């Protein structure tokens, strides 16, 4: 805390660091905040529309993958960061082949609602594609959704890097 107050730039840079595969694995293997009996489980589309279920699922925000402004392409220079996600997801799938993950794309509030929604979906899809093609995570284990600026971490209409992120949620315990 003292370091963050004395050197806020260093704290910001540190918060953008990519979490390790072990950290991602631990976050995604925590118990859900809510238990779903088999008869109450939902479809993937229902899950995407229900913030209460999304909040209950184990998740991790990844803010360190850098996209060019307005782009959904993940530069090859960012692949080592994506590899950490791939390692974690493959480890979980090795333990439980039925595990499923939701990759959510988020943007800041700069630009129109519609363009941010489309961009966030393209970014989530891009991450899924790279995880599958380059890091051998089965595409059947991943779903995507874009929320655009709907769920801002920092409530501002200005540019804010913390709002530009992907969130990965473990969802198999909620689905039919």
Question: Which keywords apply here?
Answer:
alpha+beta; 176 residues; single chain; 4-stranded mixed β-sheet
Describe this structure in words.
The protein has 176 residues and is of the alpha+beta class. It is built from seven helices and four strands; from the N terminus they run αααααβαβαββ. Strands 1-4-2-3 form a four-stranded mixed β-sheet. α3 (21-28) crosses α6 (79-95) and α6 crosses α7. The longest helix has 23 residues, at 113-135. The radius of gyration is 16 Å and the shape is globular. The N and C termini lie far apart (43 Å). Residues 1-15 have low confidence and may be disordered.
Low-confidence stretches: 1-15
Looking across the biggest beta sheet, what order are the strands in?
A: 1-4-2-3
Radius of gyration: 16 Å
β-strand percent reads 5-15%
Number of helical segments with 4 or more residues: 7
Q: Return the string of H and E elements.
A: HHHHHEHEHEE
Helix content: 40-55%
Shape: globular
Amino- and carboxy-terminal Cα gap: 43 Å
Helix/strand/pairing category: alpha+beta
Global mean pLDDT: 89
Please count the beta strands (DSSP E, at least 2 residues each): 4
Strand count, sense and closure of the main sheet? 4 strands, mixed
